[in-house]
Design brief:
By secondary structure, the chain is α+β, with helices and mostly antiparallel strands. It contains seven helices and nine strands. The chain has one domain. The chain starts with a helix and ends with a helix.
């Protein structure tokens, strides 16, 4: 099994040119399908129009968003071939420290619930550990926050909102919660 610490890149992010790939992407290219690319007006969950024959047609001049992205599978030697995005039908990446985003192929919406993924994601989500991660699952336009004991479906993904999640005490018990935080709430 893998620890959350093994997954964390030096700056806690899943992107950045400073990370040397532990494994080559080769013909994977799932990021060309699953991720939104603003510079190309490419929507999330659809193949990039520049992707052909398993390769990027604009590799030499691709946008910064593409050239700086690196998924955790390429950066983490301990993640086996079963975690390779084109095989797993999901990408592991991050947009900040202590957060892991699981971007799921909409053609395989339950891929993240298969083993070994589901059990491992729940282990990484254990917030009782010092190296725990907030696990966000993005699938078919929805956002779920994964906890070891449950998942909280926040509904339609809101790209401009942040996520606040954790535990609160209700009736003397720790209960998981998650919610979107609008940009206006962050400054108040």
């Amino acid at each position: 099994m893998h620890s959350a610490r093994e997954l964390e890149a030096p700056d806690g992010r899943g992107n950045g040119p400073q990370h040397a790939a532990a494994k080559p992407c080769d013909s994977c290219s799932m990021c060309c399908k699953l991720l939104h690319v603003t510079a190309l007006n490419k929507p999330q969950g659809r193949w990039c129009v520049h992707h052909a024959g398993g390769k990027c047609g604009i590799h030499a001049v691709k946008p910064l968003e593409c050239s700086t992205f690196q998924c955790f599978w390429t950066m983490t030697p301990s993640l086996g071939e079963e975690w390779r995005p084109d095989r797993a039908k999901l990408i592991l990446w991050s947009d900040g420290a202590n957060r892991l985003i699981v971007e799921v192929d909409s053609a395989f919406p339950h891929a993240w619930r298969r083993e070994p993924y589901y059990a491992q994601l729940k282990l990484w989500a254990d917030r009782n550990k010092p190296s725990s991660l907030e696990i966000l699952v993005r699938v078919r336009g929805r956002l779920l926050v994964l906890f070891p004991e449950t998942e909280v479906d926040l509904g339609v993904f809101q790209p401009d909102a942040s996520v606040d999640s954790g535990y609160r005490i209700e009736g003397g018990r720790r209960v998981p919660y998650a919610r979107f935080v609008e940009p206006a709430e962050i400054g108040s």
